[in-house]
Specification:
This protein is α+β, with helices and mostly antiparallel strands. It has helices at 2-20, 55-67, 103-115; strands at residues 25-28, 34-39, 47-53, 72-77, 80-86, 95-100, 123-125.
Length: 126
């Protein structure tokens, strides 16, 4: 009987934690937010893709970071994740970068950012 109690207690204790989990906030890149993108030189961490945002994209991202200080955020295009980070200090910069494991993946991202971005969704989404 005591063994069975362990199995009953575990689900009861686990379910309240599920309700407390917070969804990650997402920032959607769209055509009006990206000014330019380029693939950088490889490093030990992979192939970087650098993104320069437009003025409106920079302003929107700064407000998003401010609202999410101390939280993990995702930068996405459609359902694809470009990068993920925790915002410790909301620096109002219009520059982003993502790291990828191959030149092919980085080049694919750069091409998407240069010419394949949707008009919407755009900006913050929780």
């Amino acid at each position: 009987m005591p063994e069975m109690m362990k199995w009953i207690i575990f689900p009861v204790l686990a379910f309240p934690a599920l309700g407390l989990a917070e969804a990650e906030s997402e920032f959607n890149l769209c055509s009006s937010y990206v000014e330019k993108s380029e693939v950088g030189a490889p490093s030990d961490l992979g192939w970087p893709v650098f993104v320069k945002l437009t003025e409106v994209g920079t302003t929107s991202l700064a407000a998003f970071k401010e609202a999410n200080t101390g939280k993990e955020i995702r930068i996405v295009v459609g359902r694809r994740e470009f990068s993920r980070a925790t915002v410790w200090v909301p620096v109002p910069s219009g520059n982003l970068h993502g790291m990828f494991n191959s030149q092919e993946v980085a080049t694919d991202w750069q091409q998407t950012l240069a010419s394949g971005l949707p008009a919407a969704p755009c900006g913050a989404r929780n």
